[in-house]
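Changelog-adjacent note: as of this version, every example in the card shows the full chain rather than a window. The one below runs 95 residues end to end.
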Amino acid sequence: MALTDLQKKERKRKRDRERYRKNRKKILAQQKEYYDENRDEIRERRKPYVDEYNARPDVAKKRYKNNAKKNYQKKYRETHRDKINARAKAKRVKA
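Full-length structure tokens:
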């Protein structure tokens, strides 16, 4: 029985997935080592993409929203520190 091209590709995909699962830790260690050795070069090569991605309106909007949320949380913690500590102390006493 002759296999079609699609069947061959699917078998190869399955074998590759299995091989990756077996050697996952080794592969990730190799990638980490490569990145550690070539970090500056990789980051320099990726810089145009990173700049383009960060300039996208949806990404900039999300970043602004997250930063605003973080700043609000920080400000809240600073201004309500006593209230937060009292609440935490009350929980510890109950437990």
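Structural remarks: Residues 62-95 form one domain.
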